[in-house]
Amino acid sequence: MTIAMAPAAPQAGAEIFERILAAPSGLVVLESKDVPTLMEQVRVLARHSGQAVYLWQPDTGLASLREAHSRVPECERLGNALRYMQQSMHFGVYFLCGLELPLSAVDAAMLRQLARAPKGHLRRVVLIDAPPALTAHLGDLAAHVNCEDGKPRNLRLRDGRWLA
Predict the structure, then answer these.
(1) Which domain holds residue 13?
(2) pTM for this predicted structure
């Protein structure tokens, strides 16, 4: 009997997810060269862990990555999705992909408010490959995470979580 080993790619997604959760800010700018692969790794992680992970895209709106066809109603527009994130009282990681400039003043203000979220409330808003002008505008409010940091990591599984 042969036991198939999972590829190392989901481990990389889990490690990036852990770095996002450990970020000092509620707003994280994530730089990735392979967004579809990263989102698939996060989707697998969300399904296996049961964590509340969402993806917002301009054409589809806000959708759960854990449940394939679950969309958040009335969150197709960025402003509505940001308002939903701000008002949610539960743990959640929200990935925003495909942001286009210019953002409205209200949307930019909501992003700044989400960055300054209370410490006891674990919510992360992740801007995937955000435009450079937006990251410059947010300045030190946003934590920066790069998927391709180039450092090999010795990962090990402990209590169901991947540790470096």
Answers:
(1) 9-163
(2) 0.82
Report the CATH number that the domain containing residue 81 is assigned in CATH.
Answer: 3.40.50
In a domain, 4, yes or no: no
| Interatomic CA distance for residues 58 and 118, integer angstroms | 28
Burial of 45 per CB tally in 10 Å (0-12, 13-18, 19+): buried
Q: Is residue 1 part of a domain?
A: no
User: What is the DSSP annotation of 94-137?
Assistant: EEEES--SPPPHHHHHHHHHHHT--TTS-EEEEEET--HHHHHH
DSSP letter at 145? Answer: E
At residue 46, φ and ψ (nearest 5 deg) are -65, -40
For 104-138, how does the pLDDT look when each residue is reduced to its tens digit (9 = 90+)? 999 999 999 998 876 666 889 999 989 999 988 88
